[in-house]
Specification:
- By secondary structure, this protein is an alpha/beta fold.
- It folds into 2 domains: 2-18 and 230-425, Alpha-beta prism (UDP-n-acetylglucosamine1-carboxyvinyl-transferase, Chain); 20-228, Alpha-beta prism (UDP-n-acetylglucosamine1-carboxyvinyl-transferase, Chain), CATH 3.65.10.
- 31% of the residues lie in helices and 28% in strands.
- The chain is built from 13 helices and 23 strands.
- The protein has helices at residues 20-32, 46-57, 92-102, 123-132, 139-142, 166-176, 194-201, 233-245, 264-272, 316-324, 345-355, 386-398, 418-425; strands spanning 2-5, 11-15, 34-40, 61-65, 68-74, 86-87, 108-112, 135-138, 144-150, 158-160, 182-186, 206-209, 212-216, 226-228, 250-257, 275-284, 287-295, 303-304, 328-332, 359-363, 366-371, 379-381, 402-406.
- Strands 2-15-17-16 form a 4-stranded mixed β-sheet. A 4-stranded mixed β-sheet has the order 4-5-3-14, covered by helices on one side. Strands 6-7-9-8 form a 4-stranded mixed β-sheet.
- A hairpin with a 2-residue loop joins strand 16 (275-284) and strand 17 (287-295).
- The longest helix is centred in the first third of the chain and has 13 residues, at 20-32.
- It is globular and about 60 Å long.
- The two termini are 22 Å apart.
- It binds shikimate-3-phosphate and phosphoenolpyruvate.
- Shikimate-3-phosphate binds at residues 21, 93, 165-167, 170, 191-192, 313-314, 337.
- InterPro entries: Enolpyruvate_Tfrase_dom (IPR001986), Enolpyruvate_Tfrase_sf (IPR036968), EPSP_synthase (IPR006264), EPSP_synthase_CS (IPR023193), RNA3'P_cycl/enolpyr_Trfase_a/b (IPR013792).
Length: 427
């Protein structure tokens, strides 16, 4: 539980914790590679710690202290059959990417997670992995956890994913790396491409083309030695929105990942009128990185839909907060994927921002938000969803009086130290 007072502005220079998507992949690929990998800037959040714990249960030696990690890879077939159940906690990325890896392994494993994971659809990965030859059993015919899998002897497939999902794309690509022949994955819109970029830095050939990706089976991963994880733009988004909505704010956020498949939030902030400049644009381990300066400016409502949605899917809860402080109507559409995240994020955003006085209504595939509204302190709940807890906290900064947020422990999933960071910037 956390109590937050309305504030005037946020100011200063900060960094944010490491990128969650990149941290998961860095651990998984280092475990499967030949050679030792040092990871710097790792996100020590609950989700990435679940990934570490699962690979330790498969015999991989992982030293981790805060954001420093050292992994001794054993090669693709160096994993051993886990004697215990693999518990992914709250992490969709861990379970879906690991299913792709386990589909290639000639042993049996059982995967479980928390009650949120138990509600999230797994058929989107178990269907293509079964087509490749993996033996998967689970609740509702492999649609939900608990799941068990025995892999090996896969055949490459050509698969058309019905959703734009990096987790589906990554699971199929990883299985494809050890399948006979070629594996091709088509997706309706481009999802984040961290898997493709990082696989290349491990010496893998991955071909990206308009509408999909292709890999050849039988490739080995070779450690690049060192991986530097940039700050997570999805975490920076909460601070960016706080600065955008609070008059007099001025923040400099250093070392943030700027992968173009993730920068929808930057496009939205600019289109709504925020005063935002990127500095020092550079590349680290094949991932673009920059420093972001943002100042408050008057905001206007916009329409958000189509190809931009996968580029900002995790930012929609906090974009909804932004929209409450913009003049006019903001419409978010084509975002039905929000219903299958840690919570149904259409329902939880509407419920929690509604408690603070936002004018927000749900639609089939998004939300309509009318601004600008005066928010008033209330009692909110994260519903166990880190992004809902942090979005409510940012809204609370703009609200009059005091807001209580319940179940804030969930924020550790992606942003440990969130409240301390926020407090550092409050004037
Ligand atoms: O691959 C990843 O690291 C992620 C992909 C996205 O999920 P989907 O693949 O379900 O879109 C995103 O919402 C999640 O936070 C992380
Ligand atoms: C959806 C998310 O993560 P995951 O799918 O890994 O649980 C998220 O971090 O918002």
């Amino acid at each position: 539980m956390k109590k937050i007072q309305g504030v005037n502005s946020v100011r200063g220079e900060v960094t944010v914790p490491g990128d969650k998507s990149i941290s998961h992949r860095a651990v998984m690929f280092s475990a499967l590679a030949e050679g030792t990998t040092t990871i710097e800037g790792f996100l020590p959040g609950a989700d990435c710690l679940s990934t570490i714990s699962c690979f330790r249960k498969m015999g991989i030696d992982i030293e981790q202290e805060g954001e420093h990690v050292r992994i001794t890879g054993k090669g693709w077939y160096g994993l051993t059959e886990p004697a215990e159940v693999l518990d992914v906690g709250n992490s969709g990325t861990t379970i879906r990417l690991m299913l792709g890896i386990l589909a290639t392994q000639p042993f049996h494993s059982v995967l479980v997670g928390d009650e949120s994971i138990a509600r999230r659809p797994m058929g989107r990965v178990t269907i293509p992995l079964r087509q490749m030859g993996a033996d998967i059993a689970g609740r509702q015919n492999g649609g939900f956890t608990p799941l068990s899998i025995r892999g090996g002897n896969l055949k490459g497939i050509e698969y058309r994913s019905p959703v734009s999902s990096a987790q589906v794309k990554s699971a199929v690509l990883l299985a494809g790396l050890q399948a006979e022949g070629e594996t091709v994955l088509y997706e309706p819109g481009l999802s984040r491409d961290h898997t493709e970029r990082m696989l290349r830095s491990f010496g893998i050939e991955v071909q990206s083309f308009e509408g999909g990706v292709r890999v050849r089976g039988g490739q080995r991963l070779v450690s690049p030695g060192r991986i530097e994880v940039p700050g997570d733009i999805s975490s920076a988004a909460f601070l960016l929105v706080a600065a955008a909505i609070l008059p007099g704010s001025h923040l400099m956020i250093r070392n943030v990942g700027m992968n173009p498949t993730r920068t929808g939030i930057i496009d939205v902030l600019k289109e709504m009128g925020a005063d935002l400049i990127l500095y020092n644009v550079r590349e680290t381990n094949g991932e673009p990185v920059a420093d972001i300066e943002i100042k408050h400016a008057p905001l206007r409502g916009i329409e958000i839909g189509g190809a931009i949605i996968p580029r900002l899917i995790d930012e929609i809860p906090v974009i909804s907060v932004l929209a409450t402080q913009a003049e006019g109507v903001t419409v978010i559409r084509d975002a039905a994927e929000l219903k299958v995240k840690e919570t149904n994020r259409i329902d939880t955003v509407v419920a929690e921002l509604g408690k603070l006085g936002a004018d927000i209504e749900p639609t089939e595939d998004g939300m309509i938000i009318r601004g600008k509204t005066r928010l008033t302190g209330a009692t909110c709940d994260s519903h166990g969803d880190h992004r809902i807890g942090m979005a409510a906290a940012v809204a609370a900064l703009a609200a009059s009086g005091e807001t209580t947020i319940q179940n804030t422990e969930s924020i550790n999933v992606s942003f440990p130290g969130f409240f301390t960071k926020l407090e550092q910037t409050i004037e």
